Amino acid sequence: MIIKDIEFTLKDGRHAIIRSPKDEDIQGMLDYLYISAGETEFILRYPEECGKYTPEGEKALFDRVNASENEAMLVCVVEGKVAGNCQIVWKTGLKVRHRASVAIALLKEFWNQGIGTRLFQEMIRIAEENENITQMELEFVEGNSRARALYEKMGFRIAGIKPNAIRLKDGTFLNEYYMLREIQR
Fold first, then answer.
1. All residues at 6 or more sequence positions from 48 whose CB lies less than 8 Å from its CB, including other chains
2. Contact yes or no for 26/55 (Cβ under 8 A)
3. Residues 98 and 134 sit within 8 Å (Cβ to Cβ)
């Protein structure tokens, strides 16, 4: 699904745009995936796992998502740099088509600039425009209080827990929390 470009100003005054991914974003997205993986333990990959991402793979992903009728990827670009992205995917089976999964990540240098809120506002708009979707779902890793605060601000609530879902390199186990946001129809 292609979304209309959304231009806005960050809290620090920089210009940003949220839009569907384009071929010109491929290298920026690859850089973003690698950098973000090393900035926090709360992303579900380490930098060394990013070698599986290739320009050809990103192009195929962008083309597939942009042509899809049941998912959208949003990229936030700040002054030519990919700052982060999010994705919303809704189920198509009759019994589960009321559910949409969402995910989001930003580079650390862009935290606290209003990007996460703006990306979520757009994902919520997309969900609300789909008459079948009655709930949005996401997961976050134990200890990620910044993400949890954003998700709760956007109307999500904890609905479950996956004990020991994440195992860090040092052997530490972290729980993963399941959250949902109901859409009233």
1. none
2. yes
3. yes
SS (H, E, C) the chain: CCCCCEEEECCCCCEEEEECCCHHHHHHHHHHHHHHHHHCCCCCCCHHHHHHCCHHHHHHHHHHHHHCCCEEEEEEEECCEEEEEEEEEECCCCCCCCEEEEEEEECHHHCCCCHHHHHHHHHHHHHHHCCCCCEEEEEEECCCHHHHHHHHHCCCEEEEEEEEEEECCCCCEEEEEEEEEECCC
Count the residues in the chain. Answer: 185
Tokens 């995910």 -> residue: 103
| Predicted confidence (pLDDT) per residue in 152-163, tens digit | 999 999 999 999
**Nearby residues of 113 by Cβ (< 8 Å), 6 or more positions away:** 10, 11, 12, 14, 16
The tokens of 56 are what?
Answer: 């050809």
Go through the domains of the chain in sequence order and give each one's CATH number: 6-182 (3.40.630.30)
* Dist. CA 89–CA 71, nearest whole Å: 4
What are the tokens at 8? 């806005």
pLDDT tens sequence across 28-81:
999 999 999 999 999 999 999 998 999 999 999 999 999 999 999 999 999 999
In single-letter form, the type of residue at position 6 comes to I
